[in-house]
């Protein structure tokens, strides 16, 4: 983050000073004009975000025009007691369309991705709604919903209500509301709207699936003819919405993928129940809009939102430094553009990328070499597994095609329609959301771009994609403590080596195993071996479900071993493959000064523990238990160590001790 800040607050020439290595393969002098334009664009967006005085001078008024448009044009409500009916369908549908074009989901999520049964083609997917609170479990706790209510009352009062910061602010709000014929909400209106909103969202939560019910790709792959889906769910005009999303010249596919059929069936029942009023739906859409746009309004509005989040799910005590917020904003929108400069400062160029590829290949080969020794795999499944591992592709460092960040002209072309309103962060965010939305929908019903990355170069993370059967290791995670060129090999393999092994193992975790080597959702396992996989998986589910984390209220929650199964399998398989790869090096290395009593393999495990060293607020821990497929940090480390006979031997853990239990779970 600080490296990107230095780039955004420095000059163009500064961006090319103190590079970690030569910029071999990166075009600069021959494309300098484009490079400078790209750099200037980053600075303009960063400075626009930093200008809090200008943002605050406008108060929440930039949102008035959009709210007025919903109330008066998109979804006017003439009778507050009128229940939702077929006559309301065009109104709610066009409002949902407007929100989705701004990347704001409401009542349903739509996205474009590779088709599991035809991984060379992008299909349209439907999914259950995102909720205002982190997960459905939160709506079952009255203390949480009360805090949610208090927070929403504060936010709406300050954003669309009769609140003001003083006479000048009051005058501005009055003038802007008259300009757009927007009637600011009275305190009574705010209170009633919040009650209806929470009641409706609670109903949506009630028909939503929990996170651990959204893990099986076979259960979530439900292709349906769009015409049939529309017939089954007639109260929202899904067809017209998709036609609005897809650019001219691209045909809306005849078939869509419904990932949560039970949700949409019950949503249709809810909307047709005669218990949902038009006013409730209008307010639901408006409040959802406000919650998604408030971060781009004034400090007072943002602070009200932060306090609500703090009280319900995050536990934060203060707003982040503005430079952090703005750096993240620029990095999220112009990820590859700023990623170019980050890569050269922190990772290197083509030479370093090629070195990293060699390192990845070592882990890959070690993973492959372990398969013949897995006695629980029958020969047919083993042969298919070997085929799949051999087909796993690598991407490392940074994107070199879509776009090629080595070429400023390619970056400029990629972001050519990502424009800026120099006078308004709020308007600029809307422009960029429309651009990003168009980027996604332009892929609908088109061939999958295998060269596309789903993470930026500066992201401290990595991923495996089952449809592409590839692992992607960005430059951002090739940093200490995961990796440093000067590290001894045992630290590298205990750090980034484990991560690489982890991502490869995802090809054979509880969901990844259901795809073949070509990215096709296909049951290629024999029944006998599949049953053994399930039996071994249960060991991990039982083990990790015993770990606990402290949460608010002076209590604890158990890890959800079912939700975290895929990541736990990847952690355990990753460390085993990385240790095997390290041992194959056969190098004699010196231990670290002051730690001579620890062997290289002991330091391998210590760096594994170090990469997951961290601390979460109790509120954040609770949220992760319900939503995050990763186990809490301590469980990620201790769970792997408990299952490792090598760890127990290296550290002389007594048999039956907490870190060397009799029962050890092993898969890969």
Automatic annotation (TrEMBL):
GO CC field: plasma membrane
Pfam families tied to this protein: Peptidase_M13, Peptidase_M13_N
Domain Peptidase M13 C-terminal: 461-666
Domain Peptidase M13 N-terminal, residue spans: 30-398
Alphabetical list of SUPFAM superfamilies matching this protein: Metalloproteases ('zincins'), catalytic domain (SSF55486)
An annotated GO BP: protein processing
GO molecular function ontology, one term from the record: metal ion binding
Alphabetically ordered keywords of this record: Hydrolase, Metal-binding, Metalloprotease, Protease, Zinc
Top-rank lineage group of the source organism: Eukaryota
Cofactor(s) it depends on: Zn(2+)
CDD domains xrefs: M13
Family: Belongs to the peptidase M13 family.
Designated name of the protein: Endothelin-converting enzyme 1
Lineage: Eukaryota, Fungi, Fungi incertae sedis, Mucoromycota, Mucoromycotina
């Amino acid at each position: 983050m600080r490296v990107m800040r230095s780039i955004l607050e420095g000059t163009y020439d500064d961006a090319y000073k103190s590079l970690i290595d030569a910029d071999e393969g990166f075009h600069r002098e021959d494309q300098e004009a484009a490079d400078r334009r790209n750099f200037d664009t980053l600075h303009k967006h960063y400075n626009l975000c930093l200008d809090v005085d200008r943002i605050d001078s406008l108060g929440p008024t930039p949102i008035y025009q959009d709210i007025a448009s919903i109330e008066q044009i998109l979804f006017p409500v003439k009778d507050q007691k009128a229940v939702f009916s077929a006559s309301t369908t065009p109104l709610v549908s066009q409002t949902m369309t407007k929100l989705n074009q701004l990347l704001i989901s409401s009542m349903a999520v739509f996205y474009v991705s590779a088709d599991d049964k035809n991984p060379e083609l992008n299909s349209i997917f439907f999914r259950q709604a995102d909720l205002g609170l982190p997960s459905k479990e939160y709506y079952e706790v009255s203390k949480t919903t009360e805090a949610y209510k208090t927070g929403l009352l504060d936010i709406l009062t300050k954003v669309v209500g009769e609140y003001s910061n003083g006479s000048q602010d009051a005058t501005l709000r009055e003038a802007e509301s008259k300009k757009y014929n927007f009637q600011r909400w009275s305190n009574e209106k705010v209170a009633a709207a919040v009650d209806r909103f929470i009641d409706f969202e609670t109903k949506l939560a009630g028909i939503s699936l929990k996170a651990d019910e959204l893990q099986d790709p076979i259960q979530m792959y439900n292709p349906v003819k769009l015409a049939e889906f529309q017939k089954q769910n007639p109260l929202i005009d899904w067809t017209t919405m998709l036609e609005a999303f897809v650019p001219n010249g691209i045909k809306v596919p005849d078939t869509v993928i419904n990932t949560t059929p039970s949700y949409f069936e019950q949503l249709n029942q809810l909307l047709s129940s005669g218990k949902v009023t038009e006013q409730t739906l209008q307010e639901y859409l408006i409040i959802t809009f406000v919650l998604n746009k408030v971060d781009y309004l004034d400090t007072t509005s943002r602070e009200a939102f932060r306090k609500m989040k703090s009280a319900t799910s995050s536990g934060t005590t203060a707003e982040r430094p503005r430079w952090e917020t703005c750096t993240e904003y620029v990095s999220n929108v112009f990820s590859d553009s700023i990623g170019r400069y980050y890569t050269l400062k922190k990772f290197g160029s083509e030479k370093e990328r090629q070195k990293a590829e060699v390192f990845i290949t070592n882990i890959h080969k070690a993973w492959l070499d372990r398969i013949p020794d897995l006695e629980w795999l029958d020969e047919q499944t083993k042969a298919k597994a070997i085929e799949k591992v051999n087909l796993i592709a690598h991407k490392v460092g940074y994107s070199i095609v879509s776009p090629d960040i080595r070429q400023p002209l390619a970056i400029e072309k990629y972001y050519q329609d990502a424009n800026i309103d120099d006078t308004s962060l709020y308007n600029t965010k809307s422009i960029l959301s429309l651009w990003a939305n168009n980027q996604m929908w332009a892929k609908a019903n088109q061939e999958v771009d295998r060269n596309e990355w789903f993470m930026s170069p500066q992201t401290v993370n990595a991923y495996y994609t089952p449809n592409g059967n590839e692992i992607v290791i960005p430059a951002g995670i090739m940093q200490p403590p995961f990796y440093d060129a000067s590290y001894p090999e045992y630290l590298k393999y205990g750090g980034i080596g484990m991560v690489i092994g982890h991502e490869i193992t995802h090809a054979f975790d509880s969901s990844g195993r259901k795809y073949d080597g070509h990215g096709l959702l296909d049951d290629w396992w024999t029944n006998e071996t599949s049953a053994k996989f399930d039996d071994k998986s249960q060991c991990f589910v039982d083990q990790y479900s015993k770990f606990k984390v402290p949460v608010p209220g002076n209590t604890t929650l158990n890890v959800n071993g079912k939700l975290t199964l895929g990541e736990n399998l990847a952690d355990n398989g990753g460390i085993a493959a990385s240790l095997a790869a390290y041992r194959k090096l056969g190098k004699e290395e010196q231990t670290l000064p002051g730690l001579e009593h620890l062997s290289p393999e002991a330091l391998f495990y210590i760096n594994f523990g170090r990469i997951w060293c961290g601390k979460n607020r109790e509120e954040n821990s609770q949220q992760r238990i319900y939503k995050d497929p990763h186990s809490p940090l301590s469980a990620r480390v201790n769970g792997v160590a408990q299952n490792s006979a090598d760890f127990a031997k290296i550290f002389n853990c007594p048999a039956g001790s907490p870190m060397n239990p009799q029962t050890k779970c092993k898969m890969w």
